Predict the 3D structure of the following.
Amino acid sequence: MSTWVVPGYTESLELGAGASGRVVLAVHADTGVRVAVKYLSDSLRTRPGFVHDFRAEARLLGGLRSLYVAGLYEYVESPQGAAIVMELVDGVSLRTLLSRQGPLGPEAALVLLKGSLLGLADAHRVGVVHRDYKPENVLVETDGSSKLVDFGIAVDAGTSAGVAGTPSYMAPEQWTGAPASCAADVYAATATFFECLTGHKPYSGDNIAELALQHVDAPVPVEEVPAAVRELVRRGLAKEPDRRPAQAEAFVTELEAIAGAAYGADWEERGRARLAALVALLALLLPSARSSRSSTTDTARTVLGQAPRHGWARSWRPGRPGMLVAAAAVLLGLLLTYGMRHASAGAAERTAEAVATTTARAGAEAAPPTSPPTAPTPSGDVSPTPGVSPAPGVSPSGPSATPTAQPSASATGSPTQSTTPSEPASSTSATPTAASSTPPVAPAVKNVAVSAFRQTGTTTSSATITVTTDGSGPISVTVSWFTGTTGGVAGSPDGASQTFERSGATQYTLTVDHTVQNDGCYWTVRATTTPAPASGDASQQILTRQCEIG
C-alpha cells in the first residue's frame, strides 16, 4: 500500500481497495472540502503502461461534463505516487444496495437505468465508451439519484483495445475484441437493469468459457422480468450490436415512453423515492456518516473552475496570504496543497479551468472570464499523455471480486468509489512558518504545445495546452481564441484571452474550454507564455462540424 499522500490533503479513512490501488476519503487542508482520492498502487506505478492508463483516466474525466458522472477535481503525479482527486459522492454502490436489499422493483430499477444511461450518453456524446459498466460502478445517493464512476478502461469509440471488461456484463462483441462501441455500454447497462429487477445476472456460467458462450448464443431471458419492460431488456441485450440502440441517449427515449405507458406519469418520482428509502437503511455506510468535521483555515492556492453541479464546493480563491505562502513553499522546495473548486454561477468561472500537472473539467457554456484566476499550483512532475480522461470510485463494501477478462489499471479489481461532496469537513493546513523576501526566478520556457483541440458542441470547444520549463519558478500561460472563414489564418479574436499563473513544477497541462461568440467556419486557439517559449507560440485550427468548405 502506498504511503505517499497528495500534498494539501488530510486523509480520514479508506473507502475501498483493489489490486490497482485504493480510494480514500480526504479533506482539502485549507478549505475543509471533502474529496475522494484514488491512488495508483506502488506496484503498478513502476509500470509505464499502467501509469499511462491512469493519466488517461483522469484526462477523460476532465473532458466529461455530466451531472450523472462523478467529477474530476485534479490529477496529481510525483516521483512518489500518482492520484486522481475527484468528487466525493455521498452514497452507496448499487452492488451494496442489491446485495443488502435484493431486487429493487420496476420503477426504482428504471430510475437507475435512466440515470446511468444519461451518464453514458454524456460520455458517448464526446466519443467515449466506458467498457466496464456494472453495479460496482454506479453510486446511489441519498436522494435516489445516481452517478457513474470508474472510467479506468474507457477508450474512444472505434478503438481496437482488445478484450476487456467484467465478464457478467460484457456484450457478445466484447468477447471477440471488436472495436469499442457505445452499443456495448447499452448492453452492460441492460444486464445491470436485469439484475436490479431479478436479483441475479442474466447469465451465470460456471466458468469464463461457458459465460462467454451464453452471452454470445443463449436466448435473452426476458420471461424473468415484468412484462412491461421485456421489450427494453430484449432490445438492450440483443446479440447483434446493430439491433441495440446505437447510443445511450436513444435508449433513454425508449425507456421513458415504456415507463410512462406502464407505470404512469409519476413513475420516476416514485422510483426515486424508493431508492432514497433503501439508501437511508444503509445510512451508516455513507461517507458522511463515517467522518467528522473540524475547524478549517482559508489559504487556498489554486483556482479550478468547474461547471455548477449540485453538492459541489463553492469556488475557492487565493488571497494575498496564500500567494505569499506559495512563494515561500517554492523556495523551500515543499509540496504544497492543491486546491479545487466548483465555479460559482457567474460566467467568469464557468468557461475555463486549468490545473498544473493535470487535466480537469472545464465549465459549461458561458462567456470567457474577464478576470482569469491567478493562483500558483505547486508540485510534482507530470508527463501528460494525449487522450481522453475518466472518473473512478470505491464502494464501501470494497472492490469487486468479479473476474475481469483483461488486467488493466482500473479493471474489475480497481477501487470503485462510493462517495460525494457533502459539507466541508476537517483539517488545518500545515504551512511554512517563514517566508523568503526574495521572489523565485522565472525559468526558461522550453516548449509550449496545443493538442486535443476539438469542437465539443455547436458553439463550444476544448483545447489542451502543455508547457515545459527548465525550472519550477513562476510562469504565466495566455490562451487566445479566434474565428474566421479562411483556413490557415487565425481570423478575428473571439472573446477575451485567458491567463493562468503557474509555479512549482517543470511541466504543466491545462485543459481550457471556450464558448465561441462570433461566426466563422474555422476556429483557432493560440497559446503563449511569459517568459516567451524558446520554440515560439503554439496554435491549432479546426474546421467546425457545421461548415462544409467546397
Notes: The longest strand covers residues 445-455. The mean pLDDT is 73. The longest helix spans residues 106-125.
